[in-house]
Specification:
The protein is α+β, with helices and mostly antiparallel strands. The protein contains 14 helices and 9 strands. The protein has a 7-stranded antiparallel sheet. The chain has a two-stranded antiparallel sheet with strand order 8-9. A hairpin with a 2-residue loop joins β4 (39-43) and β5. It binds a DNA duplex through residues 34, 126, 129-137, 139-140, 179, 182-187, 189, 223-229, 232, 245-250, 279, 283.
DNA sequence: CCACAGGTGTGTC
DNA sequence: GACACACCTGTG
């Protein structure tokens, strides 16, 4: 069955969805750009993982985006939004032509998408990311999911996939158990955040009417969430495209290619997407990959 | 043994 | 406000 929605053609199979002629989509670049910790390469060009409580396998060849193990309903309810399919990345990249470095970076990784990730998962994951490295961040998140999440899928080789733990699962586990999952000094932050999500004090809808600065200030009331983590949450979950996370890499980039005064304003309303291109470009061209 | 990893809270001036 | 400084843990 094929449908046409907003000028894109989509084919639905028994157990997969194919979106035809998708521009600017690379599963590899998207999942390796540091915004998401739960997808891994399972074969050439294919990435598998769990998001929003569902297991999928994602690949994109010749402009055809294939999502395996997705129903038609899940595609419309979850993945269309998750992969930001409505956003015009081509136009966004064109708007970056005022800057040579940005032009180079965006043509290097024009297939990166800004994912629309679950708020709680993003908050928790980026708290874990502080003063940490990506392999260990992934390891901790997998361990938490295996212990406190739900079994979602087991593949033919016997590998099991788990959902990210719900906030109340971590809250009832307690700070001590969270610490024992090798989260270190971040345990108290995770516990505190979990409690606030259980209370319902934090909800994604709350941020819809807020601008980016308001969003970041609100997020920073969570312990362990500073400007960098708050910007990541705003960008990778709440879709505030002008949120501009500044980490050690971006700091280096700003020093190397720009002036000390260059701030997010210079990059405009899609500063966050610019940040992703620059970050990924700089890391790849300096030999750091995963 | 020590530095470092996609930072942040706390205590100083 | 602009600084140091510690912080769990694994890896080089």
């Amino acid at each position: 069955m094929t449908e046409c929605v907003k000028n894109i053609n989509i084919t639905f199979d028994e157990n997969s969805v194919t979106v035809h002629n998708v521009k600017n989509f690379s599963a590899c670049d998207t999942f390796n750009s540091g915004q998401c910790f739960r997808f891994n390469k399972i074969s050439e060009g294919v990435f598998a993982g769990v998001a929003h409580g569902r297991y999928i396998e994602v690949s994109c060849e010749n402009g055809d985006l294939k999502i395996q193990r997705s129903t038609r309903e899940d595609f419309y309810n979850i993945w269309y939004d998750y992969f930001d399919l409505a956003f015009d990345y081509e136009g966004c990249i064109k708007s970056f032509s005022f800057d040579r470095t940005l032009q180079k970076a965006s043509s290097f990784c024009s297939g990166i998408r800004i994912l629309h990730q679950d708020l709680w998962e993003t908050v928790c994951s980026f708290i874990i990311s502080q003063n940490n490295n990506i392999p260990r961040i992934k390891k901790i998140i997998e361990a938490l999911s295996e212990k406190y999440g739900n079994l979602i899928y087991t593949d033919s080789s016997g590998r099991s996939y788990y959902s990210f733990p719900a906030a109340d699962a971590l809250y009832s586990a307690g700070e001590k158990e969270i610490f024992e999952m090798k989260t270190g000094f971040r345990a108290k932050y995770i516990y505190d955040a979990a409690q606030r999500f259980c209370d319902g004090k934090v909800a994604a809808e709350k941020f819809e009417s807020m601008n980016t600065d308001e969003t970041i200030n609100e997020l920073m009331t969570i312990k362990g969430v500073g400007p960098k983590v708050a910007s990541c949450i705003a960008l990778f979950s709440l879709r505030k495209y002008d949120a501009f996370p500044v980490d050690v890499w971006v700091k280096k980039i700003l020093e190397k290619y720009y002036t000390p005064q260059t701030g997010k304003e210079y990059f405009g309303k899609y500063a966050g997407i610019a940040q992703q291109y620059l970050f990924y470009y700089e890391r790849c061209t300096n030999g750091v990959y995963l």
